[in-house]
Design a protein that fits this description.
Elements: H1 20-34, E1 40-48, H2 53-72, E2 78-84, E3 96-102, H3 104-107, H4 116-121, H5 129-136, E4 142-155, E5 168-176, H6 181-198, E6 202-213, H7 215-218, E7 226-232, H8 247-258, E8 260-262, E9 266-273
Antiparallel strand pairs: 1-3, 1-4, 2-3, 2-9, 4-6, 5-7, 5-8, 5-9, 6-7
Length: 275
């Protein structure tokens, strides 16, 4: 549910084409047309105080209930919590990421949040507001909290497969080096990802542009401009990518490489999500 749960498309074999290729082509067109680029996603990086993980997860379990109430009330489109796989020597990297997605209509109506406590209190029946506030409070849990917001600039669309707790996602922070970067990603890399969707190895690929950073994020002094996301299926034995070795194709891929700097991929595991 990382971010796109409401865009799931389930196609149930109602197209009776003679050609499997035509079926796949229709599926691909349908998926791309269903994807909304007007969404805004808040990507919240959370660094926990030592020994606070169990307490943190208990709080997020409560927030999962609250976030679902917000989704049902039309305040947000989707919410999820992902645990980042730690790597040796990555001090001050986030332990967890929270993603909160909103539609253009929700962004244009900030008044939706005016009664959020009233919305949430309905799902914690029998508890006082003071008790609910304590259940949702992260006081003393975070060592650091950093927020970025992004919008999609290129994406495959979402293959209609449901999320399950424990699913994996991957992302790369990127820096744009020239004005051709997004075009290279869209016209070279996206077709590769689309074919992997059709072959059953991938659920989604998307490139997002970072549109805002809060103070703690700016304090990191990083120059990331974009984030690439990858979600694969559990199908195994994906063949290695092969590209034609003609001059023009090779130059195109060289252009893609030169158009951006990319950090190593980060692995995420889904812990909680609205459905």
């Amino acid at each position: 549910m990382f971010l796109f749960h409401n865009n799931y498309i389930y196609i149930n074999g109602f197209i009776n084409h003679k050609s499997i290729k035509m079926k796949k082509l229709f599926l691909l067109i349908f998926l791309v047309s269903s994807f909304s680029f007007s969404q805004t996603t808040a990507m919240i990086a959370l660094v926990l105080e030592e020994g606070k993980e169990s307490e943190y997860l208990a709080k997020e379990k409560n927030w999962n209930i609250a976030a679902q109430a917000m989704v049902d009330a039309g305040m947000i489109a989707q919410w999820s919590v992902w645990k980042r796989t730690a790597r040796k020597g990555d001090e001050n990297w986030a332990h967890y990421y929270v993603f909160r997605r909103t539609t253009a209509e929700q962004d244009a109506n900030p008044g939706l949040w005016d009664n959020w406590k009233e919305v949430v209190s309905k799902v914690f029946k029998g508890k006082s507001q003071k008790k609910i506030d304590k259940m949702l409070s992260f006081n003393g849990i975070f060592k650091d909290r950093r927020e970025r917001q992004y919008k999609w600039v290129s994406a495959t669309g979402w293959r209609g497969l449901e999320w399950e707790i424990g699913d994996k996602g991957y992302f790369h922070f990127m820096r744009q080096n020239n004005n051709d970067f997004v075009k290279f990603e869209d016209q070279l890399w996206k077709p590769v990802a689309q074919q992997e969707i059709l072959d059953g190895y991938r659920k989604f690929w998307g490139l997002a542009k970072i549109i805002s950073k809060d103070g703690p994020t700016k304090a990191l002094n990083t120059d990331h401009t974009h984030i690439a996301f990858n979600f694969m299926t559990k199908k195994e034995n994906k063949p290695a990518m092969q590209t034609p070795d003609d001059f023009l194709t090779q130059k195109a891929w060289e252009g893609l490489t030169e158009s951006r700097e990319m950090l190593p991929g980060e692995e995420l595991t889904l812990i909680y999500s609205t459905f």
